[in-house]
Amino acid sequence: MKNYPGNLYVVSAPSGAGKSSLVKALMEVDRGIKPSVSHTTRAPRGQEKHGREYYFISEAEFDRMEGRQAFLEYAEVHGNRYGTSREGIERCMNEGDDVILEIDFQGALQVRKQFDNANLIFILPPSWDELRARLMRRGEDSPEVIEKRLANARQEMAQANRFDFVIINELFERALFDLKAIVHAQRLRYAAQRQAREDVFAGLDIP
Ligand SMILES: Nc1nc2c(ncn2[C@@H]2O[C@H](COP(=O)(O)OP(=O)(O)O)[C@@H](O)[C@H]2O)c(=O)[nH]1
Ligand SMILES: Nc1ncnc2c1ncn2[C@@H]1O[C@H](COP(=O)(O)OP(=O)(O)O)[C@@H](O)[C@H]1O
Question: Which positions bind ATP (predicted)?
Fold first, then answer.
């Protein structure tokens, strides 16, 4: 397993729990962390732009990328396909940047198999009623799509105990504080580990 200078954070949550809002707010205050833009076969929502929220691609293009093993992970979620391109992430992490992935739990567990020090963070809503209310307030999905996402949320939330960290997004600022604290603490931890490794190598008398 390759050792990159950058760290990897993976955020998963049921639809509407607030993961996109939290990740966006984190990146506004933390310039050392870069988003990964996924590829999807889902249609863009109102304000979404190709290359910003997602690369919106056809089923055929998705098949081609899958065929040439361009994805670090991919999964079908709520009836659409989503995948993380391997190339961009490895480049960022090689350059020493931290990378944050916003992907579903199936993808998160695939990533952990490839990066054993990936940090898996699960965001929970405070209640079912609030989850439904947020999906409705967001106003981007039809009632049928909202019902499908709520039905899937039960199964998704049952996976939270497989993650390294769980954050309850009740008060937004509080949840953002928790996310920042996790990123900061893990960054320090890996920096200390790397330093310790360098110290060991520096101490070895190899010509
Ligand atoms: N496995 C995987 N899941 C993804 C990827 N990109 C997005 N997702 C997940 O797909 C689900 C649906 O995302 P989206 O359609 O943007 O809806 P939202 O979660 O309601 O904002 C969410 O759980 C995302 O985290 C990806 O590259 N891989
Ligand atoms: N703590 C919070 N309290 C109230 N509303 C929130 C909170 N966090 C997010 N929201 C709102 O809930 C909706 C869903 O958030 P979003 O970030 O799109 O979720 P996700 O990416 O998990 O699907 C958005 O309208 C967002 O503004």
Answer: 13-20
The interface predicted TM-score (ipTM) is: 0.97
Please give the distance, rounded to the nearest whole angstrom, from the Cα atom of residue 91 to the centre of ligand 1: 22
Instruction: For ligand 2, pick from 28, 129, 134, 157 the residue to mutate: most ligand atoms within 8 Å of CB.
Output: 134
Low-confidence residues in the chain, pLDDT < 50: none
**Token pair listed for 65:** 């990328």
Contacts with 138 (C-beta within 8 Å, 6 or more apart), sequence order:
16
Go through the domains of the chain in sequence order and give each one's CATH number.
8-36+97-203 (3.40.50.300)
85 in ligand 1 pocket by Cβ < 6 Å?
Answer: no
- Could you tell me where the DSSP H helices lie in 1-68? 19-29, 59-67
Work out the mean pLDDT of the chain and round it to a whole number: 93
The CB of 98 under 6 Å from ligand 1? The reply is: no
